[in-house]
Amino acid sequence: MPSTVSSTADSIPALDLEHLSFRYPPSSARAPQPPPALDDVTLTVKPGEIFGILGPNGSGKTTLFRLLATLLPLRPCGSGRAAIFNHDLEHQPTAVRRCLGVVFQSPSLDNQLSVAENLYHHGLLYGFHGSDLARRIQESLSAVDLLDRRNQAVAQLSGGMRRRVDIAKATLHQPRLLLLDEPSTGLDPSARQDLSRYLSLLRQRGVTMVLTTHLMDLAEDCDRLAVLSAGKLLALDAPDRLRSLVGGDILSIELSQTPPEAQSAAAAESLCREISTRFAPWPTGTEPRLLDGRIRMERPDGPRFLAQLASFLPPTVRTVTLGKPTLEDAFIHLTGKSFAIRNPDDPT
């Protein structure tokens, strides 16, 4: 009997989205209707996964986060269905909240209180008291390696430590699903590595995690990634499989910026067209294109092609780089656009 129950529980998706759409209302009666923030998104997150939602400005990942955290009602602006461990987001929001822990992009801590006091007052909101609350505080701080800082004021902690306190607070009630909105924002590379390690430890304790991010190093640590652009789900797969979508090695050419900016842009456009014509044909999505002032292209025979290309390039070229595809390259391949960093005030 126990094995049957476990198997049944494991088969219930941690998150299940079916044709989820959402469109913010116009800012005024005369304003045009904005495009959908989410457009027919369908995906499933398995229990125990670290699942990433990758997207630039306006991709819809912030709207999705707000919907899942029950901060934004699905109706009347949305359609479709969302469920967390079989609890319907629209009709069972209280049951959904019992399953959730939420880590917001900006720390939700009182800087004047100690680490333990922040967790203590948060625990009271969940109805915990006495020895039970004390035990939970100790376990949560131990999980993020901050037990020795329990009496220190949050204001005295580094950004990485504050993020770990946020995670300890969000997991105090032992949620089944942890939502993290841009959890690595403001962290240095060392703190981001610590964050990845603590997320792995939480996964070992049976916590499923769904995080939004625009940082590729954190996305690489996810079991699977959903790539969003303009509200649409473009791809959903493991990081290595997404990278394999790219049509070969990545070549990038940067021209000298000595001439006036307009002349440099025109020269780059002209060289891009010349390379495209001279080395045709190009499989769809691999052809040279201008992105952020650089000429970018994909070739399956990168080193050999670079040798051919070198003799063709004018002296105005400053740098040529060749590398294996990254997740950002996979995004460019899927969308034809560069990956813009998210503005915290962006509503989508």
So what's the CATH class of the largest domain? Alpha Beta
Content of β-strand: 15-25%
Number of β-strand runs: 14
Q: Based on CA inertia axes, which overall geometry fits?
A: globular
CATH H-level superfamily title of the largest domain: P-loop containing nucleotide triphosphate hydrolases
Walkthrough of the structure:
This protein has 348 residues and is an alpha/beta fold. The chain folds into two domains: 2-243, 3-Layer(aba) Sandwich (Rossmann fold), CATH 3.40.50.300; 249-324, Alpha-Beta Plaits (2-Layer Sandwich), CATH 3.30.70. 36% of the residues lie in helices and 23% in strands. It has twelve helices and 14 strands. The chain has helices at residues 2-11, 61-68, 93-99, 115-125, 130-143, 159-170, 189-204, 216-220, 239-243, 261-278, 302-310, 327-335, and strands at 15-22, 38-45, 50-54, 78-84, 87-88, 100-103, 177-181, 208-213, 224-229, 232-237, 249-255, 289-291, 294-299, 317-323. β9 and β10 form a beta hairpin. α5 (130-143) packs across α6 (159-170) and α6 packs parallel to α7. The protein is globular, with a radius of gyration of 24 Å. Residues 1-8 and 341-347 have low confidence and may be disordered.
Note the topology:
Layout (H helix, E strand, L loop, with lengths): L1 H10 L3 E8 L15 E8 L4 E5 L6 H8 L9 E7 L2 E2 L4 H7 E4 L11 H11 L4 H14 L15 H12 L6 E5 L7 H16 L3 E6 L2 H5 L3 E6 L2 E6 L1 H5 L5 E7 L5 H18 L10 E3 L2 E6 L2 H9 L6 E7 L3 H9 L13
Parallel strand pairs: 3-8, 3-9, 6-7, 7-8
Antiparallel strand pairs: 1-2, 1-4, 4-5, 9-10, 11-13, 11-14, 12-13
Helix pairs in contact: 4-5, 5-6, 6-7
